[in-house]
Amino acid sequence: MAYEWLEKSLETIHRAHWYRSVKALAGRGGAVVNLEGREVINFASNDYLGLAGDDRLVEAAIEATRDYGTGSTGSQLLSGHRQLHRDLEEAIATLKQTEDALVFSSGYLANLGTIVALVGQRDLILGDRYNHSSLKNGAVLSGAKVIEYEHCDREYLEAKLQEHRQNYRRCLITTDSVFSMDGDLCPLPKLLELAEKYDAMLLVDEAHATGVLGSTGAGCVEYFHCTNKPLIQIGTLSKALGSLGGYVAGSKLLIDFLRNRAPTWIYTTGLSPADTAAAIAAINIIRQEPERREKLWKNVKQIKQHLTQKLTLFPSESPILCIGLDSPQAALNITQNLQENGIFAPAIRPPTVPTSRIRLSIMATHQLEHIETLLSYLNKL
Ligand SMILES: *Cc1c(COP(=O)(O)O)cnc(C)c1O
Q1: Gap between the Cα atoms of 214 and 303, Å rounded
Q2: Atom 7 in ligand 1: which residue has the minimum CA distance?
């Protein structure tokens, strides 16, 4: 009896066309993948630079596994820390041009642990309404007063700061830098200005920007020329870096504090040697091969320029391009048709986002023919 509600709840999910299930891909990730027995062009991956299947990352992971074993065997404060972890933290700090960095087991955990460590019941969090789930759940977990502001709305944010800031001890503003389900950018310079004016900390989640935006691939912070500003930068090793794990980059003081206070870093096992080594290899490639980033942006431009005006393309300044649709059913139908035509592009539906869409992630390793196939199909819709 206690579990009967599960079935009813699932039925409701089905009726709303919100039901989700997993699909297994075969083989290595890349611009073309094998999905349910057929080759499809992959517009569903966060592997923007095509590094997850790169031989150099694979070799680095194998070598680290040989040298250090498969698991790191403990929390980093006990037995789980290796020189490899420190090497990765230093590589991240160098890429980000911050004093230091700390590596977590995932980006999700980096957000939870950082937010919980920085604010509590006497404090205030102001977060963009479209923020990633990890920022939202971190805010709830912290016990702070949470106010969501309208997406990228500076006036709304300032009004809330004016109204509430003085009633709380500390204040933390949280935002995605590239919004993961829309592809637009946060107004970073303006957010920094407000943070300074109202004595607030500013946390930016660079998950989709690291390796992608900025002249050296450092992210949205670099893109906006805000590199040396007082910021808390979070990111993931699992998107453009092709590995698994998360990080925080910032001042020495911040990182030292988090090592002592972030529960999702202290009470969890250190990143595996394989993931750690793969991420180091990825950062080296990002530094040495800017042509990958250039190719990625060339592909994005190509699609934006040649996509028919009849489709509603969301405003985007990233390799995430969304085509708006009226209903979840319409989005599902198009995704299915695309798949039958050899194109893998997911439908993103409520409750993940307010309105349904097809979400395309562009990769540096997409060839001209892949882009042309996509365009020829979409322009016939
Ligand atoms: C993917 C993502 C995360 C989570 O990163 P993982 O390393 O996959 O846990 C956090 N924030 C944003 C904005 C993301 O897109």
Answers
A1: 21
A2: 107
